[in-house]
Amino acid sequence: MGIVQTNPQEKLQMSQSNGQPPRPFGIRDKFGYLFGDFGNDFFFMLVMAFLMVFYTDIFHINAATVGVLFMVARLWDAFADVAWGRFIDTRKATAQGKFRPWVLRMSFPLVIVGVLMFAQIPGMSNGFYLAWAFVTYIVWGSLYSTVNIPYGSMASVITDDPVERTTLSSWRTMGSMCASLVINFIGPLVVFVDNEIQADRMFMAAAIFGVLALACYIACYKLTTERIVAPENSAEKVSIGKTMKGLAKNKPLMWILAASLIFMINTMLTQAVNMYLYKDYFSNTAALSLSGLLQTAVVFIAIPFVKPLVTKYGKKEVASAGIGLAAIVYLALFFLKGLPALPFVFISAVGMFGFGFFNLVIWAFVTDVIDYHEFLTGLREDATVYSIYSMARKIGQAIAGGIGGFAIAAIGYKAAAAHQSNEALSGIYGLATLVPAIIYIAIFLILVFLYPLNKKRTNQLALDLAQRRQEKEAK
């Protein structure tokens, strides 16, 4: 069970609960946290899956230029994440909590700009569309940070129990997978006609998903409860130098940053490349929908196994086994060139099942490294630590966006061509199989040999922190 919070949190907890002690952690929090990433990924998945092909095929922007845009925007977002995380950590908690209000406040401008990204204004020049793409995409990314940083930080204050945090991570991933199902399964059926993306259908889909995203953010705000609040005497402003010194000593954070960075490179790259893989290599966008359906299905199959496996073996152990399986599958697919679309989809689903375990526990890793930061420094800086983690993911997205655009251009893809060359098609297949295999092998090695928080050390960390907090409260 989690540690019972005492007097330092009592004032905020009572105000959140109309003078009553906060309700215990339960199913309401799980659904609320699920809805948060459900809302996030309505647009995040939409952007990953369709924005590059929208820019190349509708706005007629060169793929390499799109790569530059993605790289510039993500690098900007990476530093914006840290600035926003630092800003939130210097704010006092309100009666509604420290993080939840920001999710609600910033969701409205985020969704509006997200819809505008997919707006094609008829009759405009290529230069206008290029400028429109740069402005709307960069502003959307900045606003995304203002929602995602407080949302991600919430997990560490909803509960302090390691297993319950793993459950929250799994429910967050379920929310992501639900959005992925809608975007990747229904999306291609809506926005493509005869394997060609349609501007009016794309805008309609973005508007519908925007309304759904807002409903999810409101549900996240209403259903979750923040239970862990830093005592007033520890909430004093701390210099950024002291914070960064503590972060540099946090080895679990450093290695999970490395693993997450290259994982995001793979996720963004393959998501973008898969659109071309099924559209051009297989000439079967319906198979892309099936792939999206199976990707979600295999994760939901994995979900019931996560909690018992993590309880028995630990997060590090379960995640590394899953990512190892994914590496084997994608390496095998690279050597199985010539497969038709459907066998490719079903074999790749096995790899998706493997990395699904990593995805289901990754956010619990983040709450562990936040705790480890407190253990090292005595500072509770949830949003700052989470923003550093988010920064690594954004850098991964920046690299992937740049590499993806340059790679698609380098293999000879021609946006205006009715048919692609054999060299371009072979290059697309290699980007979709060999590159993920290499990345999964790298993540496996990091988790097994370098990330230090195994099951035993994680459980001990929770006990050590509980003792320190009790001693601090007793003073």
UniProtKB/TrEMBL annotation:
Locations of Polar residues compositional bias?
A: 1-20
Which InterPro entries does the entry link to?
MFS_2 (IPR039672), MFS_trans_sf (IPR036259), Na/Gal_symport (IPR001927)
Which stretches are transmembrane? 31-55, 102-121, 127-151, 171-190, 202-220, 253-273, 285-306, 318-336, 342-366, 398-416, 428-451
Per the record, a Pfam family?
A: MFS_2
Instruction: List, in alphabetical order, the GO biological process terms annotated in this UniProt record.
Output: carbohydrate transport; sodium ion transport
CDD domains registered for this protein in UniProt:
MFS_MelB_like (cd17332)
Keywords (alphabetical) are: Membrane, Transmembrane, Transmembrane helix
Q: What is the protein named?
A: GPH family glycoside/pentoside/hexuronide:cation symporter
Q: Which organism is it from?
A: Bacillus benzoevorans
The record lists the lineage as: Bacteria, Bacillati, Bacillota, Bacilli, Bacillales
